[in-house]
Amino acid sequence: MRDLLEESTMPPEPPLLETPLLIDARALEARLQDATLRIIDVSEADHYAQGHLPAAVHLDYPRLLRDDPPAMGMIPEAHDLEQLFRELGIHPGSHVVAYDDEGGGKASRLLWTLAVVGHERLSLLDGGLEGWRRENMPVTTQEPSIDPGDYPVGTFDHSQVADRDWILSHLHDPRVAFLDARSPEEFDGSDVRAERGGHIPGAILYEWTRAMDEDRDLRLRPEKVLLQELGTQGLARDKEIVTYCHTHHRSAYTWLVLRHLGFEKVRGYPGSWSDWGNRPDTPIEP
Model's pTM, two decimal places? Predict the structure, then answer.
């Protein structure tokens, strides 16, 4: 009887905290003692050296990319990702929070890459380092000492990815929409950054920084406003959406914003226009 009583009065295991895809400075500050937390700074190296979040590890952005000329921005091989995650101290159970110094594009590319390998506990720091400073949160110049991670990378989650063949087979599918996160000039072909300019047929232009509030450290604009803007362009939550830019840098942020807004079926096109626009046989609209 005593053993049963002791067992019944043992404190339960603490539940895992909910992992928001977008986290603000105050919410992150409250989690800094979480042993599963891994903060990744994807800023320029000199900006990182000048000050970063406590325990933040620096990531050199090009390590997230693999070039396959003429396409750039492809997903690295599995063994390269395993090595990278090991150096960053990431484990399968880690809560990864990423930020950068440009509004979230580089950080979102890291989070999208982790989603592709099946990781679920992901957050983007809303407002990045500037938003953190604005809340008078601590900043340090000390580099943390971290234990190596152990992250086996198996098969990719292809529901997060659209390659050229997938797009070609869904160009006329009314259930699929293509969201172009580039500038209006790239979209209409007046700014040509590949062999050919223009956009994927039927694509909708939503330049990536439109989602940011320039007066609030590039934090996300109100969700209601964003949903209204996207809705007027025919982007409903029941559609499957492919985001692209030139190398899936800007569009990785758009992918994250859509997921945060409740769009469940969103894919990123890793090669983006560097792949599509450098092919002689892909259909293009000016």
Answer: 0.93
